[in-house]
Amino acid sequence: MTRITAHERVTASYMTWMSVRDVALLNEEQDIDFLVQKLSADVETLKLIRTTRYLGPREHVAKAGNLHLAWIYKDGNVNDQKRFENMLRISPYCFDVLLELIKDHTIFSNNSNNPQTPIEQQLAVTLYRLGRYGNGASIEDIARIAGCSEGSVENFTNRVFTAIEALHDLFVRPLTTAEKEVEKDWVEQNVGFGGLWREGWIMYDGTIVPLYAKPALNGQGYYTRKSNYGLNVQIGNAPSNLRIVDYSIGHTGSAHDQLAFEGTAAYKYPNWLFFGREFGWFDSAYTLTGRSIPIIKEPAALEPDNMAFNKTCSHLRVRSEHCMGAWKGRFQALRELRVNINSNSDHEEALRWIMVGIILHNMVIDIEGGDAGAAFHEPTEPDTEAGRAKRLELIQELAAYRATLSHHE
């Protein structure tokens, strides 16, 4: 249901009163001067309703909050710094780096004699909000924790999101040749041999970012196979450190993974993301091509060699699940997004939360490392035959490796 503002509610009430008044005066004689005067008064009243910022008395709301504890924890011992990370979802060092990166953004300059709230406080409120879901993520609860008004929470979030979005290309980018080699070595180490298998350096999968309420705009389009409402997000991540290299957002929860995947760089520009014989690993919902190798579907999956292929492939692809878990686990707002989607702009606002989460996920990995969380070509048609041949070669390599192990035993 679309939310009605206080101004719209008062305007509707006044216009209803105007109608009732005019009906009551139908039988009375009214000269032209009286009618003009009445019309002018109505116009001025409606204009006054529209231009008056506050239509009711402003009551003082007691504000205290406890977000200031984050600054105490920030300079405390190791346990205090863990408490800081629990509150704001990133370490004190990452917080300082992020603050340094966004502090000079023009969104924090209002050209006014009334300065904005300090940027570090705006950032802290936004990060705290990103780390909460369910009832604890409501604007009212966040405002009470932060010790500010509900409107300030939304303003802080919008400004910080705008500044973080400007960092997108810094943290979300294709891997370098050296970085790809690290991923290929990881695959070889986990499979037990190299060959063509090591060329699969990226894992793709889809995930649903649930919404806390059914959207008023095309609500059924957001309905998912898991009986909730959400957004379909496609993620391509490196397995060694869970870095998100490629992604696609914008599709609703009812979209098939293969359709949503068509928004990724791997689908649109495969020869820009992949070189030589490189490819990505996928689950069985995706199309087989020379650049995308999915798990084999039944009944072919029941053949012994294919079963071994699927088992080994799943052992690698579990890193997709690890990536989703690390991403949503750190920024838990993505477990149940509290955005009312009543218009196209609301849909785009929901996508901002997802994009900001991806940028921050990669930022943490760049700063802390480990699991902490050019020319374009035209899109090419899916090459199923090339993918089938590549998958067959992978199966043959695995069978040969297993035969070697059996021989040694």
Write the layout of secondary structure elements.
Layout: H1 6-24, H2 32-51, H3 69-74, H4 78-88, H5 92-102, H6 119-130, H7 139-146, H8 150-165, H9 168-171, H10 177-191, E1 200-210, E2 230-237, E3 244-252, H11 257-261, H12 265-268, H13 270-273, E4 279-282, E5 292-294, H14 304-330, H15 344-368, H16 384-408
Parallel strand pairs: 1-4, 4-5
Antiparallel strand pairs: 1-2, 2-3
Structure description:
The chain has helices spanning 6-24, 32-51, 69-74, 78-88, 92-102, 119-130, 139-146, 150-165, 168-171, 177-191, 257-261, 265-268, 270-273, 304-330, 344-368, 384-408, and strands at 200-210, 230-237, 244-252, 279-282, 292-294. It folds into 3 domains: 6-51; 69-166, no CATH class; 175-408, no CATH class. The protein starts with 5 loop residues before the first helix and ends with a helix. With 409 residues, the chain is α/β, with parallel strands linked by helices. It is elongated, with a radius of gyration of 28 Å. It is built from 16 helices and 5 strands. The protein has a 5-stranded mixed sheet with strand order 3-2-1-4-5. A hairpin with a 6-residue loop joins strand 2 and strand 3.
Largest sheet: 5 strands, mixed
Q: Classify the secondary structure makeup into a structural class.
A: alpha/beta
| DSSP strand content | 5-15%
Order of helices and strands: HHHHHHHHHHEEEHHHEEHHH
- The chain-level mean pLDDT equals 90
Q: Spans of 5+ residues with little confidence (pLDDT < 50)? A: 374-381
Strand order of the largest sheet: 3-2-1-4-5
Shape, per Cα inertia axes: elongated
Over the alpha carbons, how many angstroms does the gyration radius reach?
Answer: 28 Å
Helix percent band: 40-55%
Total domain count = 3
Q: How many helical elements?
A: 16
* Oligomer description: single chain
Distance between the termini: 67 Å
